[in-house]
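User: I've been going back and forth on whether these two constructs are worth ordering. Before I decide, could you fold them both?

Assistant: Sure. I'll take them in the order you sent them. The first construct and its structure tokens:
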Amino acid sequence: MSSATATRVVVADDSGLMRRVVTSTLEHAGFKVVGAAKDGDEALALCEREQPDAMTLDLAMPGLDGIGVLRALRRQGDRATPVVVVSAFSPAHGARAVDALAEGAFDLVAKPAVGDGIDRFTTELSDKVRLAAASRRRVPGRAAAAAPSALTRPRPGSPLAAPSVATGLGGTGRLERRARAHAGTRRMVMIACSTGGPKALAELVPALPAPLGAGTLIVQHMPPGFTNSLAARLDRASNLNVREAAGGETLDPKVALLAPGGAHLRLSDPARVVTLSDEPEIGGLRPRADLTIVDAAKAFGERLVLVVLTGMGKDGLEGAQEVRRRGGRVLVEAESTCTVYGMPRAVAEARLAHEILPLGELPAAIAAEAGA
């Protein structure tokens, strides 16, 4: 790729070593690094001057830190530079990572620890920066984007007012859904998402009623140390009790269990008890949604509703095939509201989706399908 057409990136980190590592990684991957900043004020000034396609951002910097940069960028609206946070993460940093996503970060990449190989970091950083830059070039289609994130809203104190439901491209429509709900069938809800998922979950989960169906499981691709903080934030905003799964739980209609980063979430059949597995990563992912979805399909058959939200890759495709084979229902998020239309696209293009709906219409559809 010529320098004239290369994706232009600003790198922000207070460590000179990490600025060099990130810069070298991106340049070897074909990006053009147009500036490197050692603090938040320099990062904002470089973005204003260079108008880059994307920025990598450390969270812990002197003066204006990464969260302050993200808040300043949010005020720019559609002009804001997409940001991939590149920072050291641990359980103690998990809440800060979720803060970053709530403040508008596109995605997160963990800095390589001592002894870690560089190849995975290089691939992950390049892929996410490329997707972040592409997101800026997309024509916005998300009518709900201006609504405040539920990650920052308190738990609702009034009864849920369900939004109206529109018929999806592969859908059977409102009347059939309403008839199924009145039939008294309570289905388990399985939600899978990746890039852009925390934002999507922040809109979706607080809009779901409690109790909901036969229980809810969520697989969101995140590294260890993030998911407990994400669950806590969602819990504060939601009618459902949202918890990071610890293993040993039985499904509860009032509870949504979130797969912990670094472990596969499994569901036993016929006992329907949640377990955690340290089996090897599949396609670089642990948790892998396909494993959980297939377990749920075997346990619940036609009493399962699979919901596939924004995310890159094809995780969820094999699971959706098993759900359809066993008579369950499949809902996917429409491209117009996805941060990355990868996981939903794979399911939709395989003609496995019963309905394709924008994010704002999914809560009512899920409640009707699952039985609230």
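The second construct, handled the same way:
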Amino acid sequence: MAGGGIASGSHRWAEVDLGALKANVALLRGLLPAATRFIAVVKANGYGHGAREVARAALEAGAWGLAVVTLAEAAEVRDLLPPERVLVLGPLLPEDAPEAVAGRHLLGCSSVVVARALEAAAGERRVPIHAKLDTGMGRYGADPEEFAALLSLIRASNRLELAGTWTHLASSDSDPSYTAEQLERFLAATEGLPGLRHVANSGAVLRHPEAALDAVRVGIALYGCGDPRLEPVLRLRARVAHLKTAPAGSSIGYGRTWTAGRRTRVATVTIGYADGVQRGRANRGVVLVRGRRAPLVGAVSMDSITLDVTEVPGVELGDAATLLGQDGEERILAEEAAEWSGTISYEVLTSIGTRVERHYSRR
């Protein structure tokens, strides 16, 4: 049985290498000016890796702060560092204001309505606001007119503090000219303002050094995606739980989308779309078994997938099948799995389900 050092009771698991994550932080920080603050983005359960564990590792590696989206995510990591180094990106709704103020975190804000609600909930506290400008993403962020009104409200208030300004780049990994336009708009709108100015995401840190202002927000690159210099942090594995020989002409799986063209050895593996294997993987791509690439055949079920292991000698029940990461000389990157699924690496990682056990190593 090839279990990879994980207890035999584990049917589906992710091995998270926190040493690799620390190495990624070190590499990325080396691309930045010494004074630029590094904010590690650990939203969505640390991009599927486990928020507390990766947050702790990122801080140990020199991250200044953490960024999350929801107040619940902030609560999960708030004991790891001073609350004023946790940035809640939001969006927040007016009814969130009391809880948001109580957390004492940095609060992203895109509208006058939410700022007024935060002011009303502040009591005697000063609430640190990071005002967000929409420079071309077209999603959250105040347009220029509302941004000016938001800044005026904060300046006039004795309970709100402008602790930072920020925007979100739409295509930092694919469109340099548009990224330059967004940066230019942001710099023009925030010149002379107090607090941290931050624009750069992972793509900008790797490709646009001019966008590294007072701070950067790094997400997907932390986890080893977006550049060959980075180390993948997660290996996703599951067990071979059934083996059969399918005669030529027989079909496998829901919808009978795959038919054996020859006598085929088929392995059923204990991981499916409930665990993060996208249904778009049906009959696409490979999984590693005993260091060999085995094609995924048939539909992806909720709890299992099926592989053609005819060309993989010696497969046994309990063998570890690797969907992401290294096995022997072979490796599957999240970007490669994303291509087979018709999606992006972000979704491949963040969709890894709660049934998947996380096991952590620090080297």
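Notes on the second construct follow. The domain at 232-361 is CATH 2.40.37.10 (Lyase, Ornithine Decarboxylase; Chain A, domain 1). The chain has eleven helices and 19 strands.
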